[in-house]
Amino acid sequence: MSCYCHNVTIYGKFDCCLCNQALAVLEPLQDSLHFNLEQIDITGNINLLVEFGEYIPVVFVDGVHVFNYRVNENRLKELLR
Question: Per-residue pLDDT tens for 30-54?
């Protein structure tokens, strides 16, 4: 069993097409790049809506903000290696 050494967090909404596109990049890479993926729906949280609402999806790797709107697969691979 592999050690999942990195954490990737995506803030977005479940009905967001850009969020779904970002997840379509992230999910297939999860096992090969060894990261935990956490999805946070900002819909019910006014603080998150104010902070991220105009920029979703917002992606963090190990607590560092790395992407807005789209996930660059090559850059993600660099960050996780």
Answer: 989 999 999 999 999 999 999 999 9
Q: How many Å separate Cα 64 from the centre of its chain?
A: 11
Q: Is 40 left (phi over 0), alpha (psi -120 to 50) or beta?
A: beta
Q: Which tokens hold the place of 10?
A: 């995506």
Q: What is the pTM of this model?
A: 0.92
- Report how far residue 30's alpha carbon sits from residue 50's, in angstroms, rounded to the nearest whole number: 29
- The architecture of the domain spanning 6-80 is 3-Layer(aba) Sandwich (3.40)
The DSSP line for 36-77 is EEEEEE-TT-HHHHHHHTTT-SEEEETTEEEEESS--HHHHH
- At residue 16, the 3 state secondary structure works out as coil
Tokens matching residue 41: 């729906």
